[in-house]
Amino acid sequence: MHAVIAELTKSCPVLVDGAWGTQLQARGLPVGASPDGWNLTHANLVEEIPRAYVDAGSRVVLTNSFRGNRLALAADDLADRVVELNRAAARISKSAAAEQAVVFGSIGPSGKMLCMGEVSADELRDVFLQQATALASGGADGLVVETMADLEEAKLAVEAAKSTGLAVVACMCFDSGPDNDRTMMGINPEQAAEGLQAVGADVIGANCGQGIEGYVSIARRLAQATELPIWIKANAGVPQLVGDQVVYETTPEQFASHVGKLLDAGVVFIGGCCGTSPDFIRAIKRKLDA
């Protein structure tokens, strides 16, 4: 077990942070604007997010780098600023954590379809290596490959992340199939666990895609398929469109009411994804403390 994971899991469960995208929007990020770009233009507002999560009790906070690979950044004309953006993301979260929490750099999907030939495996590996190396050089303590639908892409990202020597968490997004237990590419929890463990992930899990109640059975299946620690960050329910606003209707208390079931299913790292906030992390902490 990686030393960082071993240290964190001395005291279980481990409370992670909540959403970033919806928190950035709450601070004025315009729809369609680059969240990662804010690391350079609005660093003070970005830093408010991890600091609020640390204050709420998070022992792990992520970085504002989910779309920080050059393929995803190309849509915002920022592909030439990958290193700068990711180093800034890591530094911002490290400053906010103030040695009260560890920082895991966020690595999201490329936005390209490997199976359709839109990108080659070699290029994808290089794309993720560039981002992972930049996050590491910015001071990240670990890396989180997250919201992945394509297992092959996730494996390439994990391999790249592992080459930094940092601890690596690998998460798929389960939101498809009759039971919402498949990724968009048809991968089930058992396949995900086997594939991600094979390439060296230190922690395996799931995030985004659906509400917390749906992740109880997925967490159980992941835990049965691997002996690695399990990480779950679910959404605050399914988003609803109210007027022109996207609203997540699950309350922090409703969200936290499922924490016991997740722990029983084998979850070690627990936090929130889209629509969650520091209030959700506080609600989870109250449950854990109780």
Helix fraction? 40-55%
The number of helical segments is: 13
Taken in chain order, the helices and strands follow as HEHHHEHHEHEHEHEHEEEHHEH
The CATH C-level name is Alpha Beta
Biggest sheet features:
8 strands, parallel
Please explain how this structure is put together:
- This protein is of the alpha/beta class.
- It has 13 helices and ten strands.
- The protein has an eight-stranded parallel sheet with strand order 1-10-7-6-5-4-3-2.
- Helix 10 (215-225) runs parallel beside helix 12 (259-265).
- The chain is globular and about 45 Å long.
- The mean pLDDT is 96.
Furnish the topology, listing elements before pairings.
Elements: H1 3-8, E1 14-15, H2 21-26, H3 38-41, H4 43-56, E2 60-61, H5 70-73, H6 82-97, E3 102-107, H7 121-137, E4 142-148, H8 151-162, E5 167-172, H9 189-198, E6 203-211, H10 215-225, E7 230-235, E8 240-242, E9 245-247, H11 252-256, H12 259-265, E10 267-272, H13 278-289
Summarize the structure.
This protein has 290 residues and is of the alpha/beta class. It contains 13 helices and 10 strands. The radius of gyration is 17 Å and the shape is globular.
Primary descriptors:
290 residues, alpha/beta, TIM Barrel, 13 helices, 10 strands
